Amino acid sequence: MAGAVKAPGVFAITPHKVSVCILVHSYASPSQISVPFPFSSVSQHSRLGLYLLALAKSCDDILEPKLDHLINQLREIDGLMDDWLTDHVTSRLSSLSSPDDLFNFFNELRETLGGPDSGVMDDDQVILDPNSNLGMFLRRCILAFNLLTFEGVCHLLTNIGIYCKEGISSSSYERRLDYSGNDLESLSEYENMDLNLVFKKINEEMEARKRATDQVTFHLHLPKDLSTLVEDVEVFADPKAEHNDKGRESSSYASGDLLRNVDPDNGVFLRTNWQIQGYLMEQADAIEKHGSSFTLNAFELTLRQLQKLAPEFHRVHFLRYLNNLYHDEYFSALENLHRYFDYSAGTEGFDFVPSAGCNDSGRFEIALLCLGMMQFHFGHPKKALEVLTEAVLVSQQHCNDTCLAYTLAAICNLLSEISFSTASGILGSPFSPMTNVGTSLSVQQQLFVLLKGSLKRAESLKLKQLIAANHLAMAKFDLTHVQRPLLSFGPKTSMKLRTCPIIVFKELRSGYHLISDFCCEGSTMTTDGAFSTAWLKNLQKPMGSLVMSQDSGSRNNSNPFLFFSQPISIPGSVLQLVGSSYLHRATAWEMYGSAPLARVNALVYATCFADASSSSDAALVHVKLIQHLAVFKGYKEAFAALKIAEEKFLCASKSRILILKLQLLHEHALHRGHLKLAQQACDELGVLASSVTAVDLELKTEASLRHSRTLLAAKQFRQAAAVAHSLFCMCYKFNLQVESATVLLLLAEIHMKSGNAVAGLPYALASLSYCQSFNLDLLRASATLTLAELWLSLGSNHTKTALTLLHGAFPMILGHGGLELCARAYITEAKCYLSDPSFSVSDNPELVLDPLRQAADELQALEYHELMAEAFYLMAIVYDKLGQLEQREEAASSFKNHVMALDHPHDVDDPILS
Amino acid sequence: MSSKESCRTELRTAIRQLSDRCLYSASKWAAEQLIGIEQDQAKFTPSNTRFQRGSSSIRRRFCTNEITSTPPTDVAYVSTPVMEEDDAIHGDFYLLAKSYFDCREYRRAAHVLRNQTGKKSVFLRCYALYLAGEKRKEEEMIELDGPLGKSDAINRELVSLERELSTLCKNNMIDPFGLYLYGLVLKEKGNENLACKILVESVNSYPWNWSAWSELQSLCTTLDILNGLNLSNHWMKEFFLASVYQELRMHNESLSKYENLQGTFTFSNYIQAQIAKAQYSIREFDQVEVIFEDLLRNDPYRVEDMDTYSNVLYTKEYFSALSYLAHRVIMTDKYRPESCCIIGNYYSLKGQHEKSVMYFRRALKLNKKYLSAWTLMGHEYVEMKNTPAAVDAYRRAVDINPRDYRAWYGLGQAYEMMGMPHYALHYFQKSVFFQPIDSRLWIAMAQCYESEQLHMLEEAIKCYKRAANCNDTEAIALHRLAELHRKLGHPEEAAFYYKKDLERMEAEEREGPNTVEALTFLATHYKTQKRFEEAEVYCTRLLDYTGPERETAKSLLRGMRIAQSGFPSMDVEHFHP
């Protein structure tokens, strides 16, 4: 029923609290001596006091410990007192057999509390200050008890009975001598032990995560969703999350165990609204981070149970939605999303939202935002855009600026990811206030305007994470788009059609400010609850022995507050954002052509942000590093690294690792001349892409580029050119300009290889100009190399031009180029010299031989038979001219070997099979 | 073929056996059917037909297909099986237990029977325990209203009952009644497949226990489950099938079953009420009203199913009739969910939505799974402009029964009200999926598509077409179709639909702006098509109306004259009346 949910954080009296009350009572029993009866020393007494303090503070935890757990902890504390405390608690509990006993017990408790005017304290008497932590706890318990109806008292009594029975039956394990526990009992004991262990684990984990998620500013899941979206999709296409071993381990613990713990028959109590919120928040985080590593059904089962126990707790539906989302269950995800927002009206769990602007008409715009992102995730960009448009409208209507900012960011994300071919009819009327510059804007221009608007909005609302995410998006936009003035009139002379790396890095840098902001604030954000659980956790570890063994004199050293000090924490989502800015840097440097810088940034990410990163980001970094290895160190090492990565990440379909594997296989096969295998790998790559137009463009481009390459290697020039041509058309249509440069270069190569160098020249030049305007330095060097080759093949009178071009590109190629590029450059250089009529070999043989030897060395790692054969052939000719017959024979036989290997690629053993 | 006489004997025995086992609602049901069997003319005495006096001519009017033959079933039972009786001393214990049971002292009854081993005693003991557990559960549900709405109140007897009954079942020491109870327990425990099997076994060996049938019916949530049941033929099966079909929204199948059954059980109030409910679902409100009036005349203190009647009165806006009904039920039994629902309906009709919500809430407090109360409360919240609460209420209805198209429709409407047409579409789609024959749903969806934000006119046209195909009483669809086609520049289609709309308006003798619009369009259209004769007909008709259209018609006519004759005709004035 609407509004029937009680306020969160209702303090209910439970058997566990009763036993804590018993302990408090015996701690502060109104006796006349300073150290009450059972305690032999002040230290013992104080130790119990500390323990009780922790218990009282942790009474708002999700799970209450069962009796045997409590008993175990007590044993550690009162080891010297011959289990007096444990016996006291159990006997006291079991003596509560009628409601009247309970009434009397709580009356007694009241006596331990000092009156309000207990300023005059008798030195000898232990009286609890009603305003102290323990006093407050007692008062809350007494109040809660007094509020109970008689039926409630009866229920408490029954629950105490169950609680005792379980606790006693399980502690029989440790008292085998006293009780002859039968099989059944010991069995249940094992279960309970397991449970305790697990409880600890959960506690640890939750605490760690709680710290990470303490400072979410908006809808609890939105920033994460958004940021993963940003990171996952921004760099490369596939948002499918991977997972690592650690994630799998911890999450399986958590889900499996909650299941057992929440089972009402086990006597562990489901707690307040607030606590379950916490649990669910963590699970949401975990799902978003580790994606499909959660087993769909196990977690679903947990959630279903939770729902049964707390039917008014709607967040569960959201978790079910997330769970289904990350397991690609479209229909149930949709169903649960709708259900969640129907029930909660988007208002549940928005504890962090400032109440301003929140009217009671619900927050359905958030539902739209989520729905839009879901559609996007499932690859329905058109639908997603429609929904997001509606979200913009509704948030404007409800004046929900925060949601509007997020929605705009999501739209930007969508637009930058999914390239629409035409702008018409994509952004409807609601955007007119923002895009009123003119209707003739292209999608890119609209995107730019939106990005700017979204950034401004985020800044004015002080949504730090969104600002950072927007900066990243801006950087990405600047990386791949030439900025043009939006209005195209007036003098155009001052306009230079280039991307500006400085702006890109400025944007990236402004993303960092986020982390410093959080560093300052982080220390104040840890909550009280986290402290007490930390203390409880540490109880078993150093402090247990420390306090017990030392006398009261040195007790000051073991200041309990030492245990409270915790490392300053930065929310995981912030770390993720900052980390992804490193990823962006790596990508940017990759494009600009600085291999070392790209590698350094990737390494920084892999080492510093591995814990916070989502598994798909982690996979991406691995992919980058492995690609780097393949290009600079050859396939052997790359495959070895791939093997490690495959073990680390689940090789799900469409995962990045799988794509990388196919890429490597393709290149390797191409180099060795195993064209069938190459074609197979390339086909498989193509199949991974979604069939919807404009989705997975990255992958589609990649696949057809490789297809064309394979055809080229098979000397089917006409088909290769056709494929490349249609690819260029697609790139042009979807404005993929960086890719266009690559395709043009490929076209130039195809024409060159087909012997039509003249036709290749314009393509190479076009590619060069693309590279120039996007600052793609490495690609530019490689285009220059191709250009040199083209000139060279035009005839010997062009060698000078070729050589000049080549030498111009050499610094870039040798500094940043991969093995293949360097080798090609060397060989071309040698060829230039050789074809130069004015150059005589015998005068300066090393000028030719040295680059050739270098090339052969480098190609060895790549097993690039074709180029190697060429190098050896040239070498043989040189040696022949020099008259060094022995070396000539050697080179010739190497040449023969490589030609043979090229013809029979199957003889060599396969790296994947091994 | 079972004759009426054999039905009667079977039922008589069954009633005794059922009430012996304290299965009161089943025996009530059986007794109702017994009385419902038409009397033979030979035994026709005034006192016998007291219950049947209401067989008025009104009812006959609607029983168009009078069925003379009884349902086509093969009788698998020669007579009612004689259940074993316990011996005298044990019988005494039984009598005491039964008396306790009748005084609703269930635990006491169970205690008396603790050492009895007769099947009847065992059943009664188990049943008493079950009911005791249920009673406690209900109480606890109110006591343990946890902070999260958690109601982990369970029937604590279920576990031990299941253990005992399954042992009995294994040892084949169980009678059909025991099987029924076992099935009930299994269903509560969530073991639905086995529950189905056990219940089928129970009804196959003792078909007269309607409670068993209705439990089975609640388990048949899909047609596949129903078809998977292995039921022997008996006339009781017909009742079962009719009720399942109704639940599965196969209203026509259900109706024909009930009408068949009426051949034997001519005066059964139960069947009448069920027919009324089925008719209500296919929106035959007039018939429903007649049936319910008749029913109330025979059985004035009936509360069951009266909520449906109140819905009809609500739709027809019969204020006084609804208030009369509400008064009557509240005098009969105030604390029935149906009563609260009727009062809620009344207040809603009076426009007092807060009070209405209060009564629906009360109904829901009495029965948390009362589907129509959730939906109706949703409507009230919509009226009160409290959309989130409305959404919440509708969603609960949907979660109780996902096939409730009205609640899906309500959800869609609520979201549409909030200006989220795209989001609303999802719900409308759900709604039409479950009720594809309701034109209102299609129209609502079409309007959603038509909205300014979405502007997906092609889809809207598709929806309107569906609406037009399923008996669109308000005649919105045809007009909208014509307009949309005109807007999209499909003159042929537009003309087609305008014509249809016009025909329809003629048939219903309605006139209005739509008529004028249709006539104007058709006239212009045919003129541009150079089909002057038709154009002229429409123009002439337009002349009957006042307003600017008349002038248009005149000028059109003039233009046509010119085009036809080739020279300007000066006077059209004589067309002026």
TrEMBL record, chain A:
Domain Anaphase-promoting complex subunit stretches: 317-416
GO CC annotations on file: anaphase-promoting complex
Domain of life where this protein originates: Eukaryota
Segments crossing the lipid bilayer: none
Pfam family of the protein (one): ANAPC5
One GO BP: protein K11-linked ubiquitination
Family affiliation: Belongs to the APC5 family.
Protein name, per record: Anaphase-promoting complex subunit 5
Protein source organism: Hibiscus syriacus
Automatic annotation (TrEMBL), chain B:
InterPro entries, alphabetized: APC8, TPR-like_helical_dom_sf, TPR_rpt
SUPFAM superfamilies per UniProt: TPR-like
Example of a GO biological process term: anaphase-promoting complex-dependent catabolic process
Gene Ontology CC annotation, any one: anaphase-promoting complex
Top-level taxon: Eukaryota
Annotated TPR repeat ranges: 337-370, 371-404, 405-438
Every Cdc23 domain range: 7-276
Keywords in alphabetical order: Cell cycle, Cell division, Mitosis, Repeat, TPR repeat, Ubl conjugation pathway
Protein name: Anaphase-promoting complex subunit 8
